[in-house]
Specification:
The chain is an all-alpha fold and about 100 residues long. The protein is about 70% helix and about 0% strand. The chain has 2 helices and no strands. It has helices spanning about 10-35, 50-100. α1 (about 10-35) runs antiparallel to α2 (about 50-100). The two termini are about 20 Å apart.
């Protein structure tokens, strides 16, 4: 019977670089979204159209809020990946420390 042993090989620096760049991109997009925020004055729709103007303004606000939250959640997800990467590094260091004391045949 053949026994296969596999190990997880993670390039931690590459993970940090790639996901750090993704986090920065999502944060930049959220900032850009805020700086280019569209506001509509319901009265701009003219007499007799205030209700429609209000609905358009509310829809734009909802779109902005939803888009910004999406970008924030994506950043948070990538931050969790980085935290897991830190956990892998810590577990690997601990395992190396424990195995250092094991005698080789």
């Amino acid at each position: 019977m053949t026994r296969h042993v596999s190990a997880v090989d993670v390039d931690v620096d590459n993970v940090r670089t790639q996901y750090g760049a993704a986090i920065n991109a999502y944060r930049a997009a959220a900032h850009d979204l805020d700086t280019r925020r569209i506001t509509v004055d319901p009265s701009a729709f003219g007499d007799g159209f205030a209700e429609q103007g209000r609905r358009v303004a509310e829809a734009l606000e909802a779109l902005h809020s939803t888009s910004k939250r999406f970008l924030e959640v994506r950043s948070e997800n990538w931050e969790q990946v980085l935290a897991l990467t830190d956990d892998i590094v810590a577990a690997d260091a601990l395992a190396a420390e424990v195995l250092e004391g094991v005698e080789q045949p």
